[in-house]
Amino acid sequence: xxxxxxxxxxxxxxxxxxxxxxxxxxxxxxxxxxxxxxxxxxxxxxxxxxxxxxxxxxxxxxxxxxxxx
Length: 69
Prior knowledge:
Mean pLDDT: 72
Largest sheet: none
Strand content: under 5%
Radius of gyration: 24 Å
Structural class: mainly alpha
Number of domains: 1
Low-confidence stretches: none
């Protein structure tokens, strides 16, 4: 039988009940901030690919057509 996955919050609660370890709590908050940075970066890249890149390609085609005609 597989054990259920450990809840990360339950381990934090257990540590705080035992007197707490501030370093682990600080690491948890840093990792959350890094996750938010990565998520915002991924969203920014996705928006760039969906909006700016198609316009660049279209404008290059128009410029090339004007230049060759």
